[in-house]
Amino acid sequence: MAQDQATRGRSRCRNCGFEAPGGDDDWRRIEVPKLGRMTQCPDCESTDVITTR
Q1: What distance in Å separates the CA atoms of residue 24 and residue 37, rounded to the nearest whole number?
Q2: d(Cα 53, Cα 34) in Å, to the nearest integer?
Q3: Which of 6, 7, 15, 33 has the greatest number of beta carbons closer than 10 A?
Q4: What span, in angstroms and rounded, lies between the C-alpha atoms of 47 and 4?
Q5: In angstroms, rounded to a whole number, what is the distance separating the alpha carbons of residues 12 and 27?
Q6: Radius of gyration of the chain (CA)
Q7: How many other CB atoms are found less than 10 A from the CB of residue 36?
């Protein structure tokens, strides 16, 4: 079931401050060996991303 922006929360890059809804297409998804799929900031390429509700 798809979630709307109100229930997904906001995600923010702790490195550069980029913000977008959690799970939004603005974020990049990368595969990291031994860690799996991670969210990556499209502006600075950091994976230090937090999501709040």
Answers
A1: 15
A2: 28
A3: 15
A4: 23
A5: 10
A6: 11
A7: 8
* Integer Cα distance of 50 and 8 in angstroms: 12
DSSP-assigned letter for residue 26: T
- Side-by-side strand order, sheet with 49-52: 19-21, 10-13, 49-52
Alpha carbons within 13 A on the beta-carbon side of 3 = 11
Cα separation of 53 and 44, whole Å?
Answer: 23
pLDDT in tens, 5-38: 455 699 999 999 999 999 999 999 999 999 999 9
